[in-house]
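Risk register update: the risk of archive-format incompatibility is retired. Evidence:
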Amino acid sequence: MQWKGLSISPCNLCPRECLAHRAEGQRGFCQADDGIRVARAALHPWEEPCISGPKGSGTVFFAGCNLRCVYCQNYEIAAGGKGKAVTAKQLADIFLNLQAKGAANINLVTPDHYVTGVAEAVLLSQRQRACAAGGLQWQRLREAGNDQGAGRHRGHLSDGLQVYGSGVGGWIFGGS
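Archived output:
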């Protein structure tokens, strides 16, 4: 896969560009190493009704964050690093499980420092659709980065993964 300038080692995946050598075991400012850590994945019906639908958004909270907001409502996840290590394949299965439960979309909370692994997981889950019914149905990713800079990852990812929009909170897969 082509990542067009994005690197985990030295890390430049978020605007902080801490240049940590995560592939060699060093943790970035976000507290992430070279793996993916998921703190929680579940249907989240309390988002805005226009995006969560009747059953909720399929929300995936990632461990670690590069912001260190003093008002963070997810401090134990963001700064404490709580979560479970998962592979890109396991993350793809999480997306598909949330979709099977009726998620209106996949809503990723603080995924910036995992963008390469998240993109790989999205592509793996979408490819399952090509092999058999049931792959990830959503084709586009709306970047709603938590003040990370509008469109930071737009144009950096390949293999047909589309990144569009910007806002606050995370990324959302959905729409057409």
